[in-house]
Amino acid sequence: MNRGLTLRRQVLAWVSIPLGILWAISAYMDYDIARRYVTVAYDRALLESALDIGRQVRVLRGRIYVDLPEVAVQMLRTRETGQLYYMVTGPDREYVTGEPDIRPAQPSNAGQPLYYDDTYRSQMVRVAAIQLPVDTDDIRGQVTVYVVETQRARRELIRELSLGFALPQALLAILAFAVIWFSVGRALAPLSALQQEIETRSHRDLSPLPVSRVPSEVRPLIESMNALLERLSATLSSQQRFIADAAHQLRTPIAGLRTQTELALRQNSPEEVRATLTQLQTAAEHSTHLVNQLLSLARAEPSGERAQQMEILDFAQLARATTTDWVPHALERGIDLGFEDADGQHAPARVSGDRFLLREMLGNLIDNAILYTPHGGQVTVKLTASPTSITLAVEDNGPGIPENERDAVLERFHRVLGTGVEGSGLGLAIVREIVLRHRGQIRLLAGAAGRGTLAQVTLPTAA
């Protein structure tokens, strides 16, 4: 048994895929929200720093300067959010103060801040730029304040917030896996109990499996298994019955052969030995016929080892050829064996069937009719066809079968008493099995004028 592939693991595998995708989407959305939040918060703080520097802009003697004490500059550069640099340019974008190597970018609208990412001194930085008006007697225009901040603190905060969102979701996913694992185990408990019952059951116990506690999704499977067990039980019963019947039927002729052999060994007269050997030959022929009939019955039953080989064939041609093969045997017994095609034109009558079994069926019908027809009698094989079915009739003018025994003679080893004919009682049983395997019907009726037997077999035509 492959323990690596279990239903529980398959369910978890299929559930983990959408859960993993949802967790990845959620983690990305959490990261994006954290990034937006941190960006807005840090940009606002950066803008406040720019405005604070802008408030310190002064004009003295026609010259712009920033009255920013060194202590304040050091405080800006050592903020918790990261290192901060600044630069101020005049109305003509001339350098006023701060870090001269900051790359300027002119805001489009005065009073509206401009934010952008850049690289400064080999570090990723965030830049906030804003234009502030200067209106004095000496200078009229706008100064631009640039504030640059490293992004290390931003990235760390974004990572912390993302992990703060993602870790609880990952724990929830793990908890969901645990719940699913437990739930699937509980749901599969009836199947585990069913497995234990099957493992502990005897190989002779083919009773149906219980379906009352099985989940409805699995019930069709259990019902199919029960149907298989029922068919298997029927097959085994048929085989056991066949073996018992065969042993019973073979015991008598074998005992007779042994008795005749012992008698021949005690006889001294050649004439007596010859007569006994003749009886031995007759008994051997009967035994051979019985064995052949038993083998034919075994092949005809659904449990037979021979696989049914279905094909589209011309049943009229098969019936005509089989009847012709039995003509010499009929002549030996003084029987007039004939074949009639109802339409008179030898039109093909197509059926879907096993050629070997259908030939065996027709041979048994003809053999049975010849066996029970007296010397000088007649046996006629007649075939009629309709758009949906083909009817084969084998009629004889023998003693016939009483109406109350017509169903019984279809059972194996049943013989009509008082006929004086030693048969095996298997011919018509073989015919019935073959007819059933071909989805057909068989009926035994009285012959013409109420005399003899009419065996009628109806088979569906090929589509």
In a nutshell, what does this entry contain?
This protein is an alpha+beta fold and 463 residues long. It is rod-shaped and about 165 Å long.
Structure description:
Strand 11 and strand 12 form a beta hairpin. The protein contains nine helices and 14 strands. The chain is α+β, with helices and mostly antiparallel strands and about 475 residues long. It has a five-stranded antiparallel sheet. Strands 9-11-12-14-13 form a five-stranded mixed sheet, covered by helices on one side. It has a two-stranded antiparallel sheet with strand order 1-2. The chain has helices at about 5-55, 70-75, 150-185, 190-200, 220-265, 270-300, 315-330, 355-370, 425-435, and strands spanning about 55-60, 65, 85-90, 95-100, 115-120, 125-135, 140-150, 310-315, 335-340, 350-355, 380-385, 390-395, 440-445, 455-460.
Oligomer: single chain
Low-confidence stretches: none
Q: Figure out the total of helices.
A: 9
Which structural category fits the helices and strands? Answer: alpha+beta
Order of helices and strands: HEEHEEEEEHHHHEHEEHEEHEE
Helix % is: 40-55%
Indicate the radius of gyration in whole angstroms.
52 Å
Overall, the morphology is rod-shaped
Trace the largest sheet across and list its strands.
Answer: 4-3-7-6-5
What is the straight-line distance between the termini? 43 Å
What's the main sheet like? 5 strands, antiparallel
Mean pLDDT: 80
Strand tally is: 14
Strand percentage, roughly? 15-25%
